[in-house]
Write a structure and sequence with these properties.
Layout (H helix, E strand, L loop, with lengths): L4 E8 L8 H13 L8 E8 L2 E6 L2 H27 L5
Parallel strand pairs: 1-2
Antiparallel strand pairs: 2-3
């Protein structure tokens, strides 16, 4: 992350077509962890695979949506954990 640009690069060694979904999740987690406002940054994602590379800019709407999904998932896990502990189950 430098000068308002988050660059996420991923090397894929498999033969099946790679997806940018994992990189979108990394960008969302970065924003959550470091309290970055999504509209304040640009996210450039790049996948290297089979002697080729593909780069995409992450649209702001997709980043915001992914952050929302992560936050909702965290809340659900916390709720389930709390309910489980109330019932007397432990890790």
């Amino acid at each position: 992350f430098k000068d308002g640009i988050l660059r996420i690069h991923d090397l894929k060694t498999g033969t099946s077509r790679a997806s940018f979904d994992q990189l979108m999740l990394y960008a969302a987690m970065f924003c959550i962890e470091y309290e970055i406002i999504p509209g304040d940054i640009e996210v450039r994602m790049r996948i290297y695979q089979n002697d080729d590379q593909e780069e995409r800019l992450l649209p702001l709407e997709d980043l915001v949506h992914t952050i929302s999904k992560v936050n909702s998932s965290v809340k659900l896990v916390e709720k389930l954990r709390s309910e489980t502990l109330k019932k007397g189950y432990h890790d």
